Amino acid sequence: MTIHIGAKSGEIAETVLLPGDPYRAKWAAETFLSDVKLVNEVRGMLGYTGTWNGQRVTIQGSGMGMPSLSIYVNELIRDYGARTLIRIGSCGGMQDKVAVRDVILAMTATTLSTPSRGIFKEVNFAPCADWSLLKAAADAAQAKGTTTHVGGIYSSDVFYDERPDLNEQMVRHGILGVEMEAAELYNLAARHGCRALAVLTVSDHLLTGEALPSDQRERSFGEMVEIALEAAFSEVP
Ligand SMILES: O=P(O)(O)O[C@H]1O[C@H](CO)[C@@H](O)[C@H]1O
Ligand SMILES: O=c1cc[nH]c(=O)[nH]1
What we know:
By secondary structure, the protein is of the alpha/beta class. It has a single domain, classed as Rossmann fold. The chain has helices at 22-32, 66-78, 117-120, 131-144, 164-172, 182-192, 214-219, 222-232; strands spanning 15-18, 34-40, 47-52, 55-60, 84-93, 103-111, 148-155, 177-179, 195-205. Helix 2 (66-78) runs parallel beside helix 6 and helix 4 crosses helix 8 (222-232). The protein is globular and about 45 Å long. Bound molecules: 1-O-phosphono-alpha-D-ribofuranose (R1P) and uracil.
């Protein structure tokens, strides 16, 4: 047990899927895993371990924002031995070619700041996805026929943004979507020699104003979960 995760030693798998929403963790575990066990409910941040195609997987809520994700990912890696961490999140679309319900695979994550800013100081570290996971996820998405975009995303510290000029610059520089956690996941994976990827479903669109309701963000992003599971257990040389 750690301060924020109540699982016993051995109850967390080496492969962990990380939705921000703990109820998406519950839905995904109950929908896609077998032999599911609730392994964490500290602070209501639900975590489940089960099997997918005979492989052990944990699906653990990470909360909203990089400071929250940082707590869970630090404990998952350092105390439970997690090695492959895949965020399964929602995001806002930022390009005309990106539609609501499309999937985005985050190759890089641009930020204004992250919880790692204090150690990088004057360095602008470039958080990026693990190549083997990115390649496997792109292949899995293509095989499914899911409309998928691979490229840069923006990990913001705020949902309610008072600086529309920043989003304008992101759009201008080809950023596909905005969310709030991937950059720090990539920083932590790099620091600890782990593999990480963010697989995102577009839940709303900054250019069109279209937006899905919260129940659909919680329970309807199944292709994203399947892509993450297939990527986690693919062999990519
Ligand atoms: O749907 P999740 O995974 O929580 O991701 C997105 O949704 C939340 C904001 O509504 C932020 O956590 C953002 O990153
Ligand atoms: O962080 C997020 C998530 C979904 N949509 C947004 O606009 N921002």
